[in-house]
Amino acid sequence: MSTQTLTLVLIAIGVLAVATIVTVLVVRRRRAQLPAGTDRPRVPGAPTDGDDQLGAGGTTTTAPTGSAGSVGPSAPALQTPEGVGARLVRLRSRLARSGALGQALLAVLGRDHLDEAAWEELEETLLQADLGIDPTTSLLTSLRTRIRVDGTKDPVAIRALLRELLLEQVDPTMDRSLATTPVLGADGEPHPATILMVGVNGTGKTTTVGKLARLLVAQDKDVVLGAADTFRAAAADQLATWGSRVGVDVVRSAKDGADPASVAHDAVTAGARAGADVVIIDTAGRLQNKSGLMDELGKIVRVASRPAPIAESLLVLDATTGQNGLRQARVFAEVAHLTGIVLTKLDGSAKGGIVVAVQRELGIPVKLVGLGEGADDLAPFEPEAFVDALLG
Question: Would you tell me the Gene Ontology cellular component terms (predicted)?
Fold first, then answer.
């Protein structure tokens, strides 16, 4: 090889080496400029696109975005749900803004003379508030007797008497606690407390499931959600969004239209495997007069209760539906063995009598109430605060 040829070869090698070094430096500089977390290695067990684990019923367990093991700059920070105390303060305040029923009652009772026309007006007011015929008759009979015996016309005394009788109708002695303690299953092992949420279309059931998950997380409970409304893909997506905000896993179908009972079973199984405290199962909204849909709900109840008894079966009712809501409750009680009621849109309006009517009809308590669109606008029902709000 000539000297000239050797020189050219050495020059070519040098140029290649310099180019390689420059390329490495550029790549390192670009990586350094990427957002934090972009180049982090995948944590073992963390979900990535396409490798979520399928359950026995063809379900997918979706890890909440932003939870431990999540990857990527788009992962949002987990939210801290509001505690029960703060919720109750806010809900009492909202209830107190409205007292249409109490104002109407007190306006009549404050008259100098209560004739039959006045008592008929009181009866009409209570019936329009959806209190129901029997509770209305009972309350007015007691009220007439007490006013006649006491002979009082003092507005403060009459208000106190009305409060006492209304509170009696709401029944503060009913157990309104929510069963959230793990129970022993058929296998002798502890299983999460299963809460089944049922109701007709349009009551805000899926949203209520998400809000309930936040309430339980605020109480330091480990929660798993089951998206057993398999006919609406949006319902499962909605639950996934709620879960991502507070670090709660969601068990959902891997395909639309899957058997909802299978999803419910897989959610209970996943909850037990994860050592969760509570599993909340969302079901599809259904009309109470559709026997096929109610039979399907019965199947969900049977399948979900096989590992361990269902701890709570809650009916979500729109408080503004009045007596129609009462008819809904009767049918769901037969199929789902209801243990409690969740009333949404309970704003202390003149329709608040549905609380008394539904409890009296079914013998089960209103346990939770919703009073707004906010994520934490769900709280335990307080009879005293409710009655005080009605009276203004």
Answer: cytoplasm; plasma membrane
